[in-house]
Amino acid sequence: MKKKYKITIGIIGAIIVLTILIGGFLSNKFPITGKVTGEEILEDLVNLSFYDSKTACKLSGDLYVEDNFIGEVKNGELFLNREEYIERFGSDVEVKLKGLTDYCFEDDIGLPFVEFWVVSGEEDSFLYDKFLEFETEINPRWPVYPEAMQGFVRPYEVKEIVSGIKFDDEDSYLEDLERIFRYTYMNYVSDKGQFGEIEYWQTPKEFRTQGLGDCEDWALYAVSLLRAYDSNLDCYAASWYTHVNVVCSINETFIMFDQEKTMERFSIDEGASFQENQGKTRRWKDSYFDAYGIKPNERILFYLFNEEEFIEFEDGRTDFTDWVVNKGLGNI
Q1: What is residue 128's predicted lDDT score, i.e. its pLDDT?
Q2: Which of 54, 61, 109, 326 has the most other CB atoms within 10 Å of its CB?
């Protein structure tokens, strides 16, 4: 998924001329001792340029090198002075741009994206280039990186729905969640049938408008509703091998929510051993999978995420079981 960056020398000459002219005008109008010319200023800058090759749209967002924030890319550009550039890019490094698509993407405006490049400091022209072009091809409707997935959980888009739900003051916290769950009914349509795409993630607002979607559309909408109800609620979209549902942790109780009013719950037994609770957790999962019709070889969890938290599992079978037991016992 990572891409090599592409170095080009573009229209820098035109920029130099324009800068020199502006510098000359200002120096005549406001003469100062020891002034620096426009050409000298430009000589010390490196222009980083980011764009989407499919749409030719310029990209904007926060730029990171090896997880260190470098600066904000605006309208596809970020200028670094040469000293900082050499310091940041002097060896093989990973570059990440995180942002939202703009009006240039038309119907896909406002969608999260995260793109990576590997920049090699061994290029022959490394110390001399003034214009570095970072090219990619974004599919914002099929996020593959965690931070892009998180951007589709949007409690603010469904807050008015939650505020319109009439809760009973005598109901328990869990009963409130069950009431919210009733507002998540969906008419299932595959992405291929609805959009002609293999994968197409809808935002909660789009899903609410359409009333149609598949499993991840439902899960993103449902977890957004639950988080709009209580932003401290430990509810996550759960990305399994072939499916996406919702997992909530309420103290010692765990619930799996899914379409068609599927709901499986269980509670950690504080008086039981860790191994006994592991067994209870596995039976809880299997009960849900059997009810929903997911095959044993597909019962592997990759991620739990909401808009603030992302949890990745190396072994989606045992890791998730241990996470449930530890969380239920208050160890995490």
Answers
A1: 53
A2: 61
